[in-house]
Amino acid sequence: MSESPFAVEMNDVVIRFPGVLANDHVNFTLRQGEIHALLGENGAGKSTLMNALAGLYRPTSGTIKIKGETVNFSSPKDAIAKGIGMVHQHFMLVPTQTVTENILLGLDQPRFFMRLKEYDQKVLALQDQFGLRVDPTAKIWQLSVGEQQRVEILKTLYRGANILIMDEPTAVLAPQEIDDLIETMRSMVAQGKSIVFISHKLQEVTAVADRVTVLRKGKVTAEGVSITGMTKRDLAQLMVGRDVVFSVAKKPQKPGDVVLSIRDVRAENNKGVPALRGVNLEVRQGEILGIAGVSGNGQSELAEVITGMRPCQGSILINGEDVANQPPIVSIRGGVAHVPEDRTHVGSAPNLSITDNTIMKAYREQPVAKGWSVDFTYARENARNLKRAYEILAPSVETMARKLSGGNLQKVILAREISIEPRLMVAVQPTRGLDVGAIEAIQTLILAQRESGTAVLLVSEELEELLSLSDRIAVIYEGEIMGIVPNENADVEELGLMMTGSHLEDIRKQKAASDAGRVPS
Amino acid sequence: MNLEIILHAGLATGTILLFAAIGEVFSERAGVLNLGVEGMMLLGAMAGFSTSLATGNVWLGLLAAIIAGGILSLAHGLVTIHFQADQVVSGLSLTFLGTGLALVLGEGLTGKNPPLVPSFNIPGLSAIPFIGPVFFTDHSLLVYVGYLFVPLAWYFIFRTRPGMHLRAVGEKPDAADTMGVNVYGLRYLYVFVGGCLAGLAGATISLSVSPGWYSTQTTSGQGWIAVGLVIFAQWDPLRAAFGAYLFGALRRGILDLQGPAFLLGMKNPLYINSNYGFFLQMTPYVLTILALVIGSRQAARKRLGAPAALGLPYIRGERGL
Amino acid sequence: MKLPFTVMFEKRMDDVPKWLPAATSIGSVVIAFIISGIILKLIGGQPMRVGKFFFEATFGSWAAVSDTLVKATPLIMVGLACTIAFKMKLWNIGAEGQFYIGAFAASLVVLIPMVPLDSPRFVIIGLMIIMGMIGGAAWGFIPGVLKGKFGVNEIITTLMLNYIAILWNNFWIFNKWSDAGFQMTPPFEKTAWLPRLADYAREYKAFSGITLHLGVVIALVATVVVWWVLERSRWGYEIKLTGDNKEAARYAGINIVRNIILVMMFSGALAGLAGMSEISGVVHRLQERISPGYGFTGIIIAWLAKLNPFAVVLVSILFGALIVAGREIQPSGLAQLLQGIILFMVISSDVLLRYKIRFIRLHSPAAGEVEVA
Ligand SMILES: Nc1ncnc2c1ncn2[C@@H]1O[C@H](COP(=O)(O)OP(=O)(O)O)[C@@H](O)[C@H]1O
Ligand SMILES: [Mg+2]
Questions:
Q1: What are the tens digits of pLDDT across the range C186-201?
Q2: pTM for this one?
Q3: What do you get for the CA distance between the two ends of chain C, in Å?
Q4: N or C end of chain B, less CB within 10 A?
Q5: Strands A69-71 and A61-66
C-alpha cells in the first residue's frame, strides 16, 4: 500500500478568509488506491482544504500536484478534468430536476438535445458497476437523503473521477446506511479509485481509513499517519488538542409534573407529504426527552408543531393548554422556548444587532416594552449583561448577528430563550456545526435548564449527545415514534434498529426469540 | 363585436406581451428578476422607431430595438449579478433609466412615419375557415415569428442541455457552479436575452401593432403587465403565450364593447356616455391583478414556485466579486 | 496585457464606518449629475448652462427656494410612505395611485360637500387630512390583503392600482365634477386651502408671492412620527425584524399577515396625505396630472436616504429642486433620466458598504495591500 504513488500532493497550502486563517501551511497527500481520512473538529478547515482541491477556492499560497503534475485550478471544471470529484457536505443537487439531468449537469455531452432516455440507460449501467441504486427518472426532491448521496457519488463517477472527496458523508445517514456507504467506498477503491474521507467521527475513521490526516484550527497535527496502531484516544487528542472527557456532568434528578403532552399529532412537511403520523409523547418538568432519528424523519416538523410554526392535527397540551394549530405567539405566551434548527434563517435576524436579537421574544412585555415603545436603553443594558453572562464573543452588543460565529450566535439565541424563563424548551440540533468548546457550553446550558425544572425536548442526530444529556430517548422514523427507552438501559444497537424503522416491541420480541433459540445449545 | 376580428386583433396585441413575458421568463429562470421591462420596452420602441425613420429600413429598426433593450438590461445585470444589489430596486431604477433615456432621445419623434413591419397572408393556411382569417391573414411578420418562437422557447428551456443549465442556474446556482457551469456568465446571457426580447416587444408596438411614438403612452404599462403574466404563467413559455394572447383578445374585446348602440337587447350604457370608457380602460390592469391572484393560488396549491434562487445574488464562498 | 495588481473585493468583517453610507449617497448624486451632463453634451445640449439655470431656478431667490420646498413637501410624505414599506421589504410602488386616491378622497370633503363649506377652516382641512389618509390607506389595503392573505406579488398589484387610480380620478373630473367640460373640478373654496405664507403678505411684506404652505409642516410632523414608529415603537421593531428575516419574525410570534396589511395601509395613508396636501396647498382643485410622478420619485428618495426618515427630508429637497428645474429644462425626460442614474449609482455604491476593495500587487502578497474603502 505505502509504495503506491501519490495521486494528490498538497504542499504548504494557505487559505485565508477575511478574518480567518482557514488553512495554515497545510500538507496533505493522497496515495492511489487508498482511503485517506481527513479528521478534525467543525471549523478546523477540512472542507476549505478540499474545496481548494476541487477547484472551488484558490489557495492564497501553496502548491497542488495531481499525479505529480502541478495544477492551478481556476474553476471546478479544471478539477473535474483532472479526475477530481467531490461529494459536498451540503448536497449540490437541483431539486426540480431528475437524477439523470443532475448527473449530466455541466457536461458538454449531450451537445444540445437532451435525449434523456438514452442517458438514463447509461446511468443505469454505471449504477450496476458500483452497486449504487437510484431511479434515474426520479426528481431529486422525491429522493431520501441516502439516495441523494448516491446521486452525488454517481455524478462524480460519471465524470470518470478517480479521486473522490467525500465531505462528511455519514453525517446524514442511519447506522445501517453508513455500512452500505462504507461497502461502496471499499468497492470503489477496489476498482482503482482513491478516496478522501472527511469526518469528525473517530469511530468511522478507524473503521475505514488506511491513513489519516488531522487538522486542528487550520493546522495539521498529524500528517498522513497510518491508522493501524492509532487509538481513538490518540486521535481525539490530536483533534482537540487536549484530553477530552466526553461527558458533561448530569445530576440524577426526579422528573416532576407533565409539562408537554402530545396526542396523536399529524402534520405534513413542506412538500405536502405526511411527516408526522400520529405522534404521542410526554415531557415532564426537569426532564430531558431526547428525540433520535436520521434527519428528515419528522424531527423538524415535530418541533415546529409544538412551537406553532406548522399546522397540524391532534392535541398538544402545554401545562394543560392546547396549543396545536395556534400561531407561535400562543406557545410563546405558554412559556415555550425554541432553539430552532436553523440558526441563521429562523433563529436570528442577521442584519440586526445583538441587542435587537435578544429582545425578539421579550419586546412585548415589561420591562423591555414601555407602553407602545421599546426601551432600547434597557434592552442594550440587558444585552450587555447577557453577553457577559453567556460569554458571547463580539465587539459590542451593536454588532450585527451575521458577523457572529456559529457558536456565539447560538449563545445569543440560548441567552434569549432562557431569559424568558421557559417551562418547556424545544431545542433542535443545538450543537450542530459547533466546535468542541461551544458544544460543551451549550450542553451545559441545556443541563442547567433541566436542573432548574424546565422540561426539555432535545432533537439531535448525534446519538452520543443524546446519550450524555437525555433522561429518556425516543426514536422517530418516518413520522412515527418507534419506541422510548430510559437512558440508563439504552442500547445503541437497539436505537440504531429503531432509527431504520423497527418498532421497539418487535426488536425485543425477536431478541427474546433468538435468545430463547440459543439457550438449549 | 365580431369574434374573428377580436381574436385577430388579440393575437396582434398579444404578441407584444408575448415577447416581453417570455423574455422575462428567460431572465427569471436564470434567477434574475428584472422589473425594468417597461423601461426596456420603451427604449426598444423608441430605438426601433427612430432607427427605422432615420435609415428607412425597418429591419435595422428591429435590430436597433433588440440591441437597445439588451444593452440596457446589462446595466441591471452588472448591478445585480456583480454588485449584488437588490434586484427589485435595480429593476425599478432600470425602468426610470429606460424611460428617461427613451424620452430624452425620442424628442420630436411624434407624428413621424417610418417604414413599418410588413403584414401578409400565409398562403394556403389563410384559406382554412375561421382559423385562417384569425391566425394567418393580414398579420405582421412579428405575429408569425411569435407563433414559432413560443414552442421553440419551451423546447429550449425544458428539452435541451443549455435549457437545463439555465434552469439549474436559477434553481440551485451553487450546484451548477460546482459542476463547472458558469453561473455569472449564464445569468448575464439570459438577462441580456430578456432585455433583447423586451426591446423587440417595444418595437412590436411602435413599428407594427400601434405604430407611432407617443412617449410613455407608447407602452402604457404593458411592461408591467408582462412581468405580472410571468407569475401567472408560472415561468412556462406556453402558459405565458396563452396568457398574452388571452390578454390581447380580452383587451380588444372589451374596447369593442363601446362600439354598438345596443348590447344584448339593451341600450349600451358605454355607447351613451363615453366616460364609462375609463372603466373599460381599467380592465387590463384589473385583469392583471386577477391573473396574479389566480396564478398565485394555483402555484400555492401545486407547490409550484418561482425558481428557488430568483432574486438572490450568487456568491461563491467569499469570492463574491 | 496583465495588470501589475489584482483587485479583490473582500467581505467587510468590521462595522461600516458611520460616514460611509452618507458619503456613498452624496457621491452617487454627484456622479449621476456628471453622467447626465455627459449625455446632455452628447446629444448636443449645453450642460453648464443647464446646470446654472438649474441652480438659479431652485435656490436662486427666496421665491425659488419656496418653490423648491413646495415641491419637496409631497415628496417628503411619499418618501416616508416608501420608507416604511421598504423597511418591511414590502415593495409598495403604488404611492402614485395612493396619492391620487388620497387627493380624490380629500376632494370629496369639498365636492360632495361633506360639511357646509362655510365651516371653520380647521374643520374642513382637518377632515380633508383624515379623508386623504383614509383614501390612501384604502388603496394600500387592497394590495396589502392580496399579499398577506394570498401571497400575491405586491409590486405588480400596486403598480396596476396606480393606473386604475388615475383612470378613476379621470372618470370623475371628466364627468360629474367637471368644471364646464374641462378636465378639472371647479376651484375649492378658500376655506379648503392650506394656509400659505403669501396669505400673510399684508402683515409681512417679505411673504408676498411666497407659496410655501402648511403642508410642509404636516410633512415634518409626519417625519417625526415615522421616525418614532420605526426607531422607538414596538411596531417599528416588528417591522424591522420582519423586513430583515420574515421567518425569524414568525418565530418571534409576530402576526406577519396583519403587519403586511397595516404597513401597506400606513404607507398608503402617508401617500394619500401627500395627495391631500398637494390639492389643498397648491392646486386647489382636483384635476388631471396632479402628480408628475411623485410616487415613483418617492421610491428613489427612500432608497437614497437609506430608509432614514430625516434623510428623506434632505433628499426630498434635492428632488424638489429637480422637479422645479425639470419643468423648464429641455428635453423633458432629463429629470427622469437623472433620477434613474442616481438610483443606479446608489445601489451600485452599496457594494462599498458590504465589501472592502483591496488592490493586491502580484508576487508580493500582503506586502503591497492597499486598502481603498
Ligand atoms: N466562505 C467562507 N468565508 C469566511 N470564512 C469561512 C468560509 N468558509 C469557511 N470559513 C471559515 O473557515 C474555517 C474552516 O471552515 P471549514 O473548512 O468549513 O471547516 P470544517 O469543514 O473543518 O468544519 C471556519 O472558521 C469557517 O468559519
Ligand atoms: Mg466541513
A1: 999 999 999 999 888 8
A2: 0.90
A3: 26
A4: N
A5: antiparallel
Give the pLDDT of residue A362: 93
CA distance A457 to A337: 10
Evaluate: CB of B319 within 6 angstroms of ligand 1: no
Residue B149 CA, chain-centre distance (Å), reads 13
Assess whether pLDDT exceeds 80 at residue C112.
yes
Question: Cell numbers 468511522 label which residue?
Answer: A204
For ligand 1, whether the C-beta of A43 sits within 6 Å is: yes
C-chain residues within 8 Å CB-CB of A61? 365
The phi and psi torsions of B266 (rounded to 5 degrees) equal -110, 165
Task: Give the ligand at the shortest distance from the Cα of A43.
Answer: 1
CA–centroid distance, A54 to ligand 2, in Å, is 14
The set of residues, in sequence order, having a beta carbon less than 8 Å from that of A121 and lying 6+ positions away, is none
Contacts of C86 in chain A (CB under 8 A): none
Chain B residue nearest residue C339, CA to CA: B96
Residue nearest to atom 17 of ligand 1 (CA): A45
**Cell 441591471 belongs to residue:** B76
Beta-carbon contacts below 8 Å between A and C: 83
Query: Residue A177 has which C-alpha cell?
Result: 446506511
Q: If one looks up domain B3-301 in CATH, what number appears?
A: 1.10.3470
Atom of ligand 1 nearest to the CA of A218: 14
Task: Look up residue A15 and give its amino acid.
Answer: I
* Residue C351 touches partner B, C-beta closer than 8 Å: yes
H helices present in A109-229, as ranges: 116-130, 145-158, 175-190, 202-208
Residue with cell 464573543: A393
CB contact under 8 A, C232 and A374: yes
Spell out the domains of chain C, with CATH numbers in brackets. 1-48+329-363 (no CATH), 74-319 (1.10.3470)
In angstroms, the CA C351 to CA C9 distance is 9
Span C252-289, pLDDT tens digits: 999 999 999 999 999 999 999 999 999 999 999 999 88
Pairwise pLDDT comparison (A95 vs A271), residue with the higher score? A95
Which CATH number is A6-240's, of 2.60.120.10, 2.60.40.4070, 2.30.110.10, 3.40.50.300? 3.40.50.300
Distance B156 CA to ligand 1 centre (A): 39
* Nearest residue by C-alpha to atom 14 in ligand 1: A45
CATH superfamily name and code, A258-335+422-514 = P-loop containing nucleotide triphosphate hydrolases (3.40.50.300)
For chain B, list the contacting chains (3+ Cβ pairs, <8 Å).
Answer: A, C
Cα C371 from Cα C373, distance rounded (Å): 6
Does C369 contact chain B (CB < 8 Å)?
no
Contact between C248 and A360 using a beta-carbon 8 Å cutoff = yes
